[in-house]
Write a structure and sequence with these properties.
single chain; 230 residues; alpha/beta; BirA Bifunctional Protein, domain 2; 8-stranded mixed sheet; 4 helices; globular
Length: 230
């Protein structure tokens, strides 16, 4: 997988480039990983409801073809776009999502932070009272009895630090993962993040980790290259 650290990139231009890459690739095209930082804007996924945009104000809202609801992108956030051929790699979308999340978890671990999955809610979360605790969450995904309903996500005591939104076209992926490093978090208060009212959103700086965009981009890039391999 070729890693491209693009830095500050216009969101619309990035999406158009990802779509063009995906449409033009053939079975021999090498996979790529693009890592970007975007100017402030909200993105509304295919399942998005306008009611989750509470007061966007002067921040642009961009409709996009990824999965999921509304989220925010802005300076101080590492956004990773894996452009992969899943058929060639040999795994399916559910495992792809798991591997994306695992890369985020291992990136957080590099900085001493424990990232958690929450049953029924994609993305990665941290304990607000102790982001460095290794104790398992009661809300963690667990095996369900066949036919049992999907769990209702419980975000008690948690803050979201990484969000996922993917698109798969002809078994090829684009869009991806956003990890919050050192952002202005106020815009998250103007939406229901990922469609959940009252969901707290955090970044590494607010939980006491002093780092920068470039360092996190390099760590996350290495983790994604490792975790997304065949």
């Amino acid at each position: 997988m070729d890693l491209r650290l693009l830095g500050a990139t216009d969101y619309t231009a990035a999406v158009q480039a990802m779509q063009a890459f995906t449409q033009q690739r053939d079975p021999g095209t090498r996979d790529e990983l693009w890592i970007c930082e975007h100017s402030p804007h909200y993105t509304q996924g295919l399942a998005g409801k306008s009611t989750h945009l509470l007061a966007p104000g002067d921040i642009p809202v961009v409709a996009t073809n990824r999965g999921g609801q509304v989220t925010y992108h802005g300076p101080g956030q590492v956004v990773a776009y894996p452009l992969l051929d899943l058929q060639r790699l040999g795994y399916f979308v559910k495992e792809y999502v798991y591997r994306l999340e695992e890369a985020a978890i291992q990136t957080l671990a590099h900085f001493g932070v424990t990232g958690h999955r929450v049953a029924g809610a994609p993305g990665i979360y941290v304990r607000l009272d102790d982001p460095f605790s290794h104790a398992m969450l009661a809300q963690r995904p667990q095996q369900r009895a066949p036919g049992s309903p999907a769990p209702e996500p419980d975000f008690t005591g948690l803050g979201k630090i990484a969000a996922l939104g993917i698109k798969v076209s002809r078994h090829c992926t684009y869009h991806g993962l956003a990890l919050n490093v050192a952002m202005d978090l106020e815009p998250y208060a103007r939406i229901n993040p990922c469609g959940y009212a009252g969901l707290a959103t955090v970044d590494l700086s607010t939980i006491g980790v002093q780092t920068n965009w470039s360092e996190v981009a390099h760590v996350l890039g290495r983790q994604l290259q490792r975790r997304l391999a065949p």
